[in-house]
Amino acid sequence: MAEPETLKIKREIGLIGGVALISGTMIGSGIFMSPQFVLAYVGSPGASLVIWALSGLVAMLAALSYAELGTIITESGGEFIYILRIYGSCPAFFAAVTFIMIVKPFGIAAMGISIAEYVLAVFYTDCYPPQVAVKCAAAVTILVDAIVNILNVRFAIRVQVIFLVAKVLTLTFIIIGSIVEVIQNSSVIVENLKVENSFKDTQYSVSTLGMAFYQGLWSYAGWYNLNYVTEELRRPEVNLPRAVIIAISLVTGLYLLVNVSYLTVMTPRELMSSSAVAVTWGNKVLGGWGWIMSVAAALSAFGSLNGGFFSGSRVCFVAAREGHMPDILAMAHVHRLTPSPALIFTTIISLVVLIPGDFHSIVNYFSFTAWFLYAITLSGLVYLKIKRPELPRPYSVPIIIPIVALIVAVALVLAPIIDNPQIEYFYVAIFILSGAIIYVPFIHYKLFPGVLTKLTVFLQLFLEVAPAEKNL
C-alpha cells in the first residue's frame, strides 16, 4: 500500500479568533453555576468576591507563563507537548492519558450538564429536572457540538466569536439590570456588602478555601486553550500573549461585576440555595421573563463547550502524532482538514464520563487533576528559564510569575488531600499511574499488534482521513 499524502492544517486563527477562543471558553457554565458553590464554601459575600478576583489573577499568571512556553515550543498540544519536549516521553505519556481520559472529558461533561440544566429549567420551574432528562439533554448537546467541530475549523471559530458576543451581552445585561435594581431598592446589596456583614461567617480552613478556588478557577478554565492550537494561530509570538491579556482582563472584570450583580437582588442564603443562580436572578428581576436567562446561560455554556472541543481534541491529535496514542487519532479529514478521529474519540470518552457524574463532583475532580498537570508544566518553564536561558524567546515573563503560579498550583493539588482526604482523589491518582501498563509494552517497546494496524487502515478509509504534518 502506498504511503498516504500528508496534510497540513491551516493557520486560520487571528487575534480576534484567539481572544474569542480564550474568553469564549472561559465565559461558559461557570459564572452561571459556580457562584453559589464558591459562596457556600467560604461562607461570606466579601470572601467570595476575593476568591473570584484571586482566581482571575492566578489564571492570568498561569496564562502568561504558558504564553512564553508557546513561543519557545511552537507546536500545538499544550501541556503534553511541553512536558514531552522538556521532560521526555514517559512523563508526557502520563500527561496525555490524564488530559485525554480525565481532564478534557470531565470538563466537556460538566459543561454539557450545565447546558442541560439551564435548558430544562425553563420546563421545570418549581423543582429540579430529573437526572435522566439532564443526562440525555447533555449527551445531545455534546454530540451537536462535536459535529460542528468536525465539519469545519473556520465555522467552529465563527461559532466561537458569535457566542462570545452573545455571552458578553448577557453578562452586560445582568450588570445593567442590577444597576437599575439598586437605583430602585439598594437594601439587599447594602446588607450583603456593608463592612460588618461582607466577611461575617467566613470559613478559613485549607480544604474549604481550596474547594472554593476549584469552583472559581473552573469558571476561568480555558485560559490555556490557545496553547493547544498554536500551529493554527497566525503570528503566535505576537497574538498569543496579546490574546491572553485581553481575554483574561475582560473576563475577570465581567465576573466581578456579575457577582456583585447577583448580590444586589439575592441574600447569601438565596444564592447558595439556588440550583441555577442566573435563573434565580432572572426570576427576581425580570419576573415572567426570567426564562430568558435560562436560554442565555445555555447558549453561553454552549460556546464554552465549543471552545473546549476545539482545543481539547488537538491534544489527542498531537499525542497520537508523537506516537503516544493510536495513529488513527493523528489523522485529519482529507477535505475538511479537521482532526475528526480525535474529535470522535474525545466525544465518546466524554459521553462515558457523563453517565455516572454530577456537576459538583465532576468540577472538583477536573480541577484537582488539571492543576496537577499545570503544576508540572509550570515547573518546566521555571526549569527552562534557569537551565536554558539561551533558547529564543519572542515573548518572556519575569521568572517570579511562573514561580508564583507554580506555588498556587501545588497548593491547589495538595490542599484538599491534606485537610480533607477523600478516596476519590486516590482513585484518580491510581488511574493516572495505571498508564504504565500501557506505556511500557506499547510506547516504550513499540509492541503494536497487527490487528491494530488493520483497524487503523479500516478506520482511515471509513473516515476519509490521512496523516497530517506539523505546521511550524
Give a verbal description of the structure.
The chain has 472 residues and is mainly α. The chain is built from 21 helices and 3 strands. The chain has a 3-stranded mixed beta sheet with strand order 1-3-2. The mean pLDDT is 81.
Structural class: mainly alpha
Termini Cα gap: 29 Å
Number of strands: 3
Radius of gyration of CA atoms, rounded to a whole number: 22 Å
Provide a count of the helices: 21
Please trace the helix and strand order, writing H or E for each element. EHHHHHHHHHHHHHHHEHHHHHHE
Low-confidence stretches: none
Short structural summary:
With 472 residues, the chain is mainly alpha-helical. The chain contains 21 helices and three strands. The longest helix is centred in the N-terminal third of the chain and has 33 residues, at 89-121.
SSE layout and pairing:
Blueprint: E1 7-8, H1 15-26, H2 30-33, H3 35-42, H4 45-72, H5 79-87, H6 89-121, H7 131-151, H8 153-184, H9 187-193, H10 195-198, H11 206-219, H12 236-265, H13 268-273, H14 277-286, H15 291-321, E2 331-333, H16 340-354, H17 359-387, H18 400-419, H19 423-433, H20 436-444, H21 450-463, E3 465-469
Parallel strand pairs: 1-3
Antiparallel strand pairs: 2-3
Helix pairs in contact: 1-8, 1-12, 1-15, 3-4, 3-11, 4-11, 4-12, 4-17, 4-18, 5-6, 5-17, 6-7, 6-15, 6-16, 6-17, 6-19, 7-15, 7-16, 8-12, 8-15, 9-12, 11-17, 11-18, 14-15, 15-16, 17-18
